[in-house]
């Protein structure tokens, strides 16, 4: 600052110099007061332009992670609603299975079975009601409207009951030429050594179009279906005495039709260890049966192929579980009505001449399949919930860490600013006092007059 020479009354240079510093200190004091009252070091872009830009970006991420955490909580709540409904459906299927087991006994009278079927029919209606009306915030959960991509489920078969024969005997070695084109999907398959297991069903496998939803259903016996898609059903085999020979009577019950008119029966008169192409593209090789085996039975459960479903008009639910674009988790919940579970036609009263309880026997297997479908759905739902919980934990951790970084940039160091405030307050007070002295200093020129 330039020096002041001599006495002057035209310009009070001392006062000007004091006012300059006083104004600067007052401005700094005002900024300090603003910071202390807001608790922030940066209150406007002028305070720290680059710091403000960085802090706002960090705050945007913090807000995103906080909202994503809330989204995950909402998703968990929706999943809890869905799982509760699936639990109820599971309980209903357990009850239907119990009724089917009761109806499968021939000592249960016809009127009793009618009463059992009445309860089953009402329970099936309840399954449909739950599937159609389970919602969260107005969004349907179990009606298939948010099924999304559903993978293909291959056709399968299993021997659910297999009676032992009196003599295991020996088996002819089976070759590829003997079996033809075989897709092994069952619980028992032919062996290259041709070992006979001593059971009525020595081996079972799918052939031809077994793993597709189109093609011809093969059948070699009277009344066999000759065309159509692979369907759910039950094959019953029983060693019988026809009066002229010992044979295996074959009965096929189609689950999707569930009427006595669709129970097909016939006799397998081929010799033991023969290849018997029966119903629904299922190939069975019989064991060595004889007169002493009359009454021996076996059951084979056939489950149809369920093709892949992309469901473009029923997309999976998307949960925004992170702060960034595309940080989503998808959850597809397939329909759980009686049609999708393939239990809509359960009929405990359906029977054939040789098996009065085949409808209820088939129902047991169908309910088992439906239970597996429901449990798989619940397992997928539970796995998604676990993933969402992990994502929520990550959201919370990221939010805390980012908030800490943003706080370092934007928040005020109160202790340091308080010290600065006290310093500025003293400087302003001293400056005000000095200004008063500087303003009165010009009066000293009057002493020069006599």
Fold and architecture overview:
- The radius of gyration is 42 Å and the shape is rod-shaped.
- The chain folds into two domains: 40-149 and 312-411, f41 fragment of flagellin, N-terminal domain, CATH 1.20.1330; 156-307, no CATH class.
- With 450 residues, the protein is α+β, with helices and mostly antiparallel strands.
- β12 (317-320) and β13 form a beta hairpin.
- It has helices at 13-38, 49-103, 110-133, 176-179, 338-341, 358-410, 414-441; strands at residues 135-136, 139-140, 156-162, 182-183, 201-207, 233-241, 246-254, 263-268, 275-277, 282-286, 297-303, 317-320, 328-331.
- Helices cover 43% and strands 15% of the residues.
- Strands 3-11-6-7-8 form a five-stranded antiparallel β-sheet, with helices on one face. Strands 4-5-10-9 form a four-stranded antiparallel β-sheet.
- It starts with 12 loop residues before the first helix and ends in a 9-residue tail after the last helix.
Largest sheet: 5 strands, antiparallel
Helix content: 40-55%
Q: Into which percentage range does the β-strand content fall? A: 5-15%
Shape: rod-shaped
Strand order of the largest sheet: 3-11-6-7-8
CATH third-tier fold name of the largest domain: f41 fragment of flagellin, N-terminal domain
The overall pLDDT, averaged over residues, is 80
> How many separate helices?
7
Radius of gyration in whole Å, from Cα?
42 Å
CATH architecture of the largest domain: Up-down Bundle
- Secondary-structure-based class equals alpha+beta
Overall strand count: 13
Distance between the termini: 34 Å
Poorly predicted runs are: 170-195, 220-229, 268-273
String of helices and strands: HHHEEEHEEEEEEEEEEHHH
CATH class designation of the largest domain = Mainly Alpha
At the fourth CATH level, what is the homologous superfamily of the largest domain? f41 fragment of flagellin, N-terminal domain
**How many separate structural domains?**
2
